[in-house]
Amino acid sequence: MIKSDGLDRDKIKTNLKNRWIGSSIIVYKSTSSTNDVAVEYARNPDNHGTVIFAEEQTAGRGRGGNKWLSKKGDSTLCSIVLSSEQINPEILCLSCAVAVAEAVGKGAKIKWPNDIILNSRKVAGILLETKKYKNHTAYILGIGINCHQKQNDFPKEMRKTATSIDIERDSLIDRNTLAKRLLSSIEHWLDIAKKNSGKVIEQWQKLSILLHKRITVIYKSKKFTGNCIGIDPEKGLIVQLETGSVRMFDAAHTTIAKN
User: Fold this and answer.
1) In the chain, what are the helix, strand and coil shares in percent, each to the nearest 5?
2) Which end of the chain has the lower number of beta carbons within 10 A, N or C?
3) What topology is assigned to 214-256 in CATH?
């Protein structure tokens, strides 16, 4: 049986001492949701860059109100407070997807807008929430990466669509190393986004499993089918519909239908 590693705040912060992402790191043994904790820290704009990790979430959530299921110590679960970020939310989401895929490593791909895929199965998810306070707006960036799960740990209905890094690599991932790599990667891609968002889009396109593929999107409860031809930095996914017209679908109101 694989023994799960424990998250160590000092190990995560190695080589991140002078970096704004991860300058303050809090690790919980258990919490309802790291995003819920991060919301409270985000009330103070001085907490920009604070990262909340948890070994376990009792009420973790994904996009669209979906539950994020994970046994204690099996995943890398964190939320990042971005209370002074000026990046467009769409670019912020794309940047994070690229960063998480980079942190997961070789073979990781992106399924727009917030899923990271390994060998055609979901290994990580991203939840970006916007919170408006009296004097500032903050983004809460929630990330869940499956690390130590075995196939039988997933509910039966998810075993064909979900996976973990250990399953795909056939080895034990060190979550402290992964966490450190994740924070460095996020800072790197957010920095690039501020200087040249085109580079983010270019990298996203390289990692996308949807680009140039026939897809069906669900937008405000309606289905639209066509070929994915690109991504717009502000308006979202670009799809050439079967009718011949081209339409853009923003991440906030759109999901990709399952095949």
Assistant:
1) 30, 30, 40
2) N
3) SH3 type barrels. (2.30.30)
